[in-house]
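From the shared-data thread, chain only:
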Amino acid sequence: MKKGLIKYFILGVFFAFFISSVSALVVDSVIMDSSGTSPGEEMHIEIGLRNNGDEDVEDVSVFLDLKDVPFAPFDSSSEFGIDKIKEDKLKFAEFDLIALNDANSQTYKIPVQISYNDEGEIKIKNSLISIDVHSEPVLGVSLEEGLLLKGNNNEVAIKIINKGLSDIKFLEVEIEDSNKFELISPNNIYVGDLDSDDFDSVNFKVFFDNDVSDKVKFIVNLNYKDSFNNEYEKEFEVKLKVYSRNNAIDVGLIEKSQVSQIITIIIILIVIWFIYRWWRRRRKLKE
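Structure, as tokens:
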């Protein structure tokens, strides 16, 4: 029995030591004035700290480590101090942050360091909070250089540019049907991911009739998602300049064929040769 009592006494002392060493201050909640923010916008954050211990804690300091994230303090500091949190009480550390203008659209993890005085012992606790930066994708569409001829099969090259701060994914490019041209290739091309400040190009094979007008509207539909899986559909109008072969020659886009000129020169040379032979024969006859 004595051995059993000693055993339970040792376990009790160990358990009491373990409980006393557990951090009394815990992050109870994180309150933000919105679910996320946009580049250049401000937001207010409150971090709730609860004292679950049996004693008051003092000199509480909450520090946000912002060195690796695109946020900065706005009309506040990255550190917030609380003189005392009584046992079983909740107090909030408050911060005002602004998302930098070049913040990409994604979820950012901000390290939080909490230090406090617990009965003369300085304790440190580390945590994380998450902030979403939302930036609507900004896409542009343009026509890459290339000669388009009537009565010919042509390649229409469309460039898609991601001008925004949000990466996009699952990008599809679709061309609307028209009676102005005939699509020889499929009207839908899957591109996939397109990073911020990047571009990609897609080519469509198109046939233009000889009687089509010189300017043709090309309707381009883009379907895609942003980094938070929000779906988007945008329509763009690209104006195509289509040339007849003669017009293309006139403006210098196509070199004029030299075949007819070469044939004319050959005919002239042949005529000159015959005239020369005829002249030689007459001269010999006179002699």
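Confidence is low (pLDDT under 50) at residues 1-21.
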